[in-house]
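Quick check before the chapter quiz. The format below is the same one you will see on the exam, so make sure you can read both the input and the output lines.
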Amino acid sequence: MAKKMRRILPAVLLAGLGITCAAATLETPSFVVNIDVRCAEGNVTCDNVRYSGTSRKTGKSITLRGRTMHSRCADGITPCQFQGYVFNSGRLRYMVTQGGDLIVMQGEKTLVQEHGTWK
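Here is the expected output.
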């Protein structure tokens, strides 16, 4: 019982501050990626998203901070439809789409492109 309360208590405290943590896991053939959105409930965009990815082959992991991705409305400014998440690490760009794709790019070169399942 005490172990369960330790997991629930931080979420309750954050909710009291107007901060929500929405987490999801994307499983691709080669990677397990955890996405943790850490923004106040009701925000359309979020610049505080955490990426924690682990290679199924090597067991190595990486943690990154990023933001949500959205298409733009007709005015070219207002964010419209949610597309997924983007994270930068040096010259690498990690994108995780709403549809379940993991894409890692270095400039214009695609290093990884895998489709997975959200859990």
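If your answer matched, good. Confidence is low (pLDDT under 50) at residues 1-20.
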